[in-house]
Amino acid sequence: MALHLNLLHEEILQQRQRQRDPLKLGLIVMGAFGALMFFYYMWNAYQTLEIKSQLSATQREWAKVEPKVTAVQKRATELTAIISTTKVLDGIIESRFYWAPFLEKLARCVAPNVQLTSVEGTVSEESKSVNVVIEGVAAGREARGAAEELRQLLTEQIGQDHKDVKVDFKSLEDLDTVVNIGGANMPTARYALVVSFDPSAAGASAAASPAPARKPKEKPE
Amino acid sequence: MKLTKDQLQKVILSAIGFAILIYVYFTFFLGPLNKSRASMIGSIASLQKKIGDSNGEMRKGAVLEEQAKTATTRFAALKALSPEGAPIAWFPPRMKTFFAAQEIDKATARLDSSSAFKQPELADWMKYAWQIDLPQTDFAALGKAVAALENTEPLLSTSRLSLKASAEDPQHQQALLSVSTVIVRR
Lengths: 221, 186
Known about the structure:
The structure holds two protein chains of two kinds. By secondary structure, chain A is α+β, with helices and mostly antiparallel strands. Chain A has helices at about 10-20, 20-95, 100-110, 145-160, and strands spanning about 115-125, 130-140, 165-180, 185-200. Chain A is built from four helices and four strands, in the order αααββαββ. In chain A, strands 1-2-4-3 form a four-stranded antiparallel beta sheet. Residues about 200-220 of chain A have low confidence and may be disordered. Chain B contains four helices and four strands. A four-stranded antiparallel beta sheet of chain B has the order 1-2-4-3. The longest helix of chain B is centred in the N-terminal third of the chain and has 63 residues, at about 5-65. Classes of the chains: A alpha+beta, B alpha+beta.
């Protein structure tokens, strides 16, 4: 067996110690780990850049859409306001009481022997009911009967279009005056009628009508 | 393997260095990057939601525009009934002209009161109350005129009508109308 003499024993030991130096090994491990982490970071950074470009594209798209949608929102608010205002105005228009059809009916009810001297009508703001006071003079063999006929006619005619119709005499008194109708002298009576009704039932059919077809006789004979 | 004191120190030093490396990496590099990425993803999602909602709103807006055509036309027509200027300046002459066209020559309109509406929808509108005096008319002419007035002035409503036979002139009657108009606030 050959005899080995290791004359460099110390140097070899030192070299082995240098190779197994924990600091050096640690640095190598850290370097390798660091490189790994660097590549992982770079991969993440690349992905982030991609996302950033996506974000930029989305922001550009939003910048295009935003003014349009703002304008649409503004217009929608404007239109909603117009629609609601028109609805309220239409409500006001539809809830009006049309006097012309009433006057037409009144004219139809007035017979030649009946005269109107005053018509006072009001529409109640709260209840929307209509109250009319009609004053006049009726003539006939039965002057009171002529006035009553007018009352009944009014009840019937107004009742065709409106509900809760009430036509009552406020006063009815005989007059001393005698008028000549058709060559015959007839006694007269002064009447005052109170007409009240709810115009709501009239609905859309209560549109203003043309002028009365018949002019009432109001000139005393 | 038994470590010498010097080696042990180096191992500890390496471990500390490694810990610092990890800390710095996650705190100053990967952490902010991930945070920024998460924030960007959040922003993208939020923007895409906004874009989606906006498209929906634009579709709704188009539908509303279509639906509101009638209301818009009607609103414009109602608004056009109120000319520019103070109502006291144009309403009485308008009524005078109107009744003259209805063969009622003497017509005067005077302003009674004006008030704002309580409804928020009518914030831009005012209610004016007028007295229209027709000292020389007759029942038939008045009936025609009232019918025409109610048909041509949709924003006008008559709250009181008074018709009296004239003692001096039996051919004519005196009429007084209390009307209210809805007029755009200028």
